[in-house]
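This part of the workshop introduces the protein records we will be handling. Backbone structure tokens are a discrete shorthand for how the chain folds in space. Once this layout is familiar, the rest of the handout is easier to follow. The record below serves as our worked example for the rest of this section.
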Amino acid sequence: MHRSRPAPQRVLRLDSTSEAVDALLPLIAEAHTRASTAERAAPAHAFAGPVLLIDGRSGSGKTALATALAAALDAQLVHLDDIYPGWNGLDAASRHVHDELLTGATARWQRWDWANEQPAEWASVDPGLPLVIEGIGSLSRANAVAATFAVWLELDDDSRRRRALGRDGAAYEPHWEMWAAQEDAFLAREDPASLADVIVDFTAR
């Protein structure tokens, strides 16, 4: 379902994931209502429920927020961490979300086998249910058009690094700078914060 033109962008400065969920749920419901009643001249993938994109730099809290929103909405949840084709795969995963999951003939995505460094099985999503997609690269210009609601997360760099490396440790640290460079390039090209319906700023927490 393509979204209609968003309401003026909001910035929410919050202290917790639970506060973010409480603030976002009514906004998502409003966006879904707008999208459901918008003109249907442009062909759209047949998602009956809202499609959410949750983006932000590494360690900003995307997974926690997306997991909580998916639970509150009884939604399917797709993590880009399961799609990136290796440590150089940010842009490829962003395109994969658009081509296969959001606008493909069948709503599906392919898992990346990190242990064996190769593509793995395909998984389908039910277009009759809400869908939450989280990960850096999810909120591109092309993907935003095909979504109902988009969120960009902000968190200060020191906190992001501490959270990300505390979570993934030795597996991530050697790739931190290379991944950050891909994030920089994606942000420069797509400006995802400007595409979001809401910016959630966790910096104060």
